[in-house]
Amino acid sequence: MPNAIVILNYNGVQHLQTYLPSVIANSPNWQIIIADNASTDHSISFVKAHYPEISIIELPENYGFAGGYNQALEQLKGKYDLYFILNSDVRLTPNWDSPLLDYLAAQPEVAAVGPKILSDLNPTQFEHAGAAGGYLDSFYFPFCRGRLFDTVETDSQQYDSPQEVSWVSGAALLIRSKDFHDADGFDAAFFAHMEEIDLCLRLANKGKKLFCIPASTVYHLGGGTLGYESPRKVFLNFRNSLWMLVKNQQKFLLPLLFVRMALDGIAAIQFLLKGKPILTWQVFLAHMALYRHFSTFYQKRPTFEHQRLRYHGLIIWDYFGKGIRQFSALNKRKIH
Hints:
Number of domains: 2
CATH architecture of the largest domain: Alpha-Beta Complex
Strand content: 15-25%
Number of strands: 13
Order of helices and strands: EHEHEHEEHEEEEEEEHHEHHHH
Distance between the termini: 35 Å
Largest sheet: 9 strands, mixed
Shape: globular
CATH topology of the largest domain: Spore Coat Polysaccharide Biosynthesis Protein SpsA, Chain A
CATH class of the largest domain: Alpha Beta
């Protein structure tokens, strides 16, 4: 079967105008599909007029990132071997696909791989959402090779080796279609943000592996839909991270959840001290969403927890307490 690049779009005609040419020019052997989340701009008419060879799936409403991809990929089920889930604000480079395809072909236990993601605005730097592969710490705080919290490293080829990771960024995620559907896709309740991490955790729980393959490089604008300090984005990140913890953590759930929520509270106080009370309010709302939906996500917990790659430490303490600003300075023996 062929392979498909699937780009979810919502009112993103500017991104399509800017980034689609690189996708088409560098992906001659791929079927390119736009899944549109009921856009109200002229995204669809633009694609039809300028790129008639691109297939379009028009969804009846905005299902968010998670639900939108689920709806679209369900329509593609059984038609493609691989899905390359790609944000509309990613610039592809020549030969981006060969290293990823070669690695998947040689490693049947690997469900998904991702490229090295650099910033389209600052091409010598890693991009916040994915960098050179993502990890989770003991309390489900995500970080990356090349990015700890808001500190983004310059790419000097320090992370150019293939590396097993805890999660692959949804900005540029190459996944076997069978694995995507066997894992029931993204959790649509998340709407947007953290859904790819949750999917990767569920894949790992099935014994699958995730890898970053930096021989493939793409450039991501980042924050194309919501800015990094958008109140909506802060809410979704805090809420979805807590939901993810409840549905994926088997042992010591309540103690871990208690500590995690206390750390969230410290973050909320920091937002307040920085003169950003609206972000403090978003953290509060995220916690209220956890209380309302705790039983729903608790019931989604797997009956068996497979060994999953994790950073067995507290990245907040490493970053704010020890002053560690680079992934390379972390104790790698804690990653197992």
